[in-house]
Design goal:
70% of the residues lie in helices and 0% in strands. It has helices at residues 3-10, 19-22, 24-49, 66-82, 86-115, 121-151, 168-179, 188-216, 224-254, 270-281, 290-314. The two termini are 14 Å apart.
């Protein structure tokens, strides 16, 4: 399918394709991508928690960089450490990205039905951000436990608070017992801006990257090569925009909670976390784990959109 016909079909509806068939393709695509990207999610979490609320010269780094982290975790904890939190990661992808991509898809479809024209850049950003907020609401409990599982390490220094959950079920039970059911959504107000920024950056930059590639290479066929190039471009943009919010979310989700007050013991919310990180770690604190985030989000973005495009083609839906 050439770029011209792709542009035409991307502006059209999907005809007789049922939303119940089309929309779950987003969840399946992100779950497939998670199988490959989860190790970098573990490294990102560890690096973002390393030296929490400490100056750079006041602690000994357990991990020098993302590759040292990967090697160290594998040596100390084996493949189970490298793939820590994978089960919750898959469920999180289905809950968060399934709802996020489905919502985005639905908004684009409704927009075309109402206006008869393709979505504009500003409308695309708004739809992506709203979809990200919806995804955060559905995915927050799973991301909370996944983060705490991935933070657990045999290293004693510089890796944030250790919750020491033995299983995911125990983690959910401990959180509900200590904080109540609402505790499962602790850190939600950090997750919402994270996913709004990340979703707007990812979905918008992917669409625009594809358009730019089609203009530069008008004879390029719609397919994996084009989707790979667009995904890698989008991934770099997403990582830079998203990392500060990702650090804040990781810290809010992993902090210990006072069993009496049921409040975080390190941070009193999103803006308090932002102020404390800036004061103790400086601006570089917001970009801890940036390389791990890109090596996670770059391939994850590539695989998500390649799988999503292929699954949509199988059910007869238009390209993204």
């Amino acid at each position: 399918r050439c770029s011209k016909s792709s542009n035409q079909t991307s502006a059209m509806g999907d005809g007789a394709v049922s939303p119940w068939v089309k929309y779950p393709t987003g969840a399946l695509a992100t779950m497939g991508a998670c199988l490959f990207s989860n190790p970098m999610e573990v490294m990102k979490t560890r690096l973002q928690l390393q030296g929490e609320l400490k100056g750079s010269a006041t602690y000994q780094k357990a991990y020098r960089n993302v590759f040292h982290a990967l090697a160290s975790v594998y040596r100390a904890e084996g493949i189970r450490g490298v793939q820590a939190g994978l089960g919750l990661g898959l469920i999180y992808q289905a809950a968060m990205n399934g709802s996020r991509l489905s919502c985005y898809d639905m908004l684009k479809d409704k927009h075309f039905e109402m206006t008869g024209r393709p979505i504009t850049l500003i409308e695309n950003i708004a739809a992506s951000a709203f979809s990200g907020a919806v995804g955060a609401l559905f995915g927050s409990p799973f991301y909370l436990v996944k983060t705490q599982q991935q933070a657990q390490t045999v290293a004693a220094e510089g890796i944030g608070y250790q919750h020491r959950h033995k299983t995911a079920f125990q983690a959910f039970g401990n959180i509900i017992k200590t904080e109540g059911v609402t505790g499962l959504w602790r850190g939600l107000f950090g997750s919402i801006p994270r996913l709004m920024v990340g979703s707007a950056a990812q979905l918008t930059s992917y669409s625009k990257s594809k358009e730019a590639i089609q203009q530069l290479f008008p004879n390029m066929q719609e397919g994996i090569a084009q989707q790979f190039a667009a995904s890698m471009l989008a991934g770099s943009f997403v990582a830079v925009c998203m990392n500060p919010f990702d650090v804040l979310t990781t810290r809010l989700y992993n902090q210990p909670v006072d069993p009496v007050t049921k409040k975080g013991m390190y941070y009193n919310g999103f803006f308090d976390a932002m102020a404390k990180i800036f004061r103790t770690e400086g601006p570089r604190g917001f970009y801890k784990g940036l390389s791990a985030l890109y090596f996670r989000i770059g391939p994850h973005t590539v695989l998500t959109f390649v799988f999503w495009e292929r699954l949509r083609a199988l059910v007869g839906a238009k390209y993204v």
